[in-house]
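Hi V.,

You were right to ask for the full record rather than a summary. Here it is.
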Amino acid sequence: MPVRIVTDSTSDLPSDIAAAAGITVVPLNVHFGTETFRDGVDIKEDEFYRRLVSTAKLPTTSQPSVGAFLETYERLAPGADGIVSVHLTAKLSGTYNSAIQAKGEFKGCPVEVIDTQQGSLGLGMVALAAARAAQAGGTMAQVSQAVQQAMRDTKFFGAVDTLDYLVKGGRVGKAQAFVGGVLRIKPIITIQDGVVHPVERVRTLQKAVERLAELARAAGPVGSVGVIHSTTPDVAQSLADRVRDLAPGGQVLMSRFGPVIGAYLGPGAVGVAVMKRG
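Predicted structure:
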């Protein structure tokens, strides 16, 4: 009997990719004033970014409820050997804690909840690794081991047009060191040990794309590559072209920052996720 894989919407996986891999995605929430939307369900990227740049007050976000996870686990349990639930770093969200609480209330099959210490497409890469292990017939222990290995092997780097959204959203982390610096710079950031860290600053978007490609190459022999953006598909395509030779078969996973991650990175953000070849 199969092991089921659950992640959350901050994994920023395209819905068709998640569905094909058998991954169930639990949405976080984004709030514009009194309006609440489920990330990727009630509001899609185009509408979200239109509202983001036109609103006076920035949106806020919240984790899924315990009940949302409980309903998901109950729905997946019949016919399953177990559920491996992989999530956004607990240092940036309460999502992991909601999943842990749901696990405590759940009376069905075994559930393992893992804080991946990742976010966005870095989390997405880990979820896909879990799905591959499950589809290969792996046990709960084998799938969990694949997740732990993927966590060690995955790196995510992003370039943001401005740190304003991270600062105002309270998620700037160690990249606070970049705040108040030279205007018109493009900060490059990463997630390390579950916290946003600064990498360096470059002066132009073109330099940012070049540097992201270099960082992807420096990650070592690559097993999979993903490129992601918020509002600049042409920039994402340029980055994908630069890293395509790293990807097995030249296959680069293309995605967009969803509403919850987009609330903190803002328009004009682009990123690359790489998983080392095992």
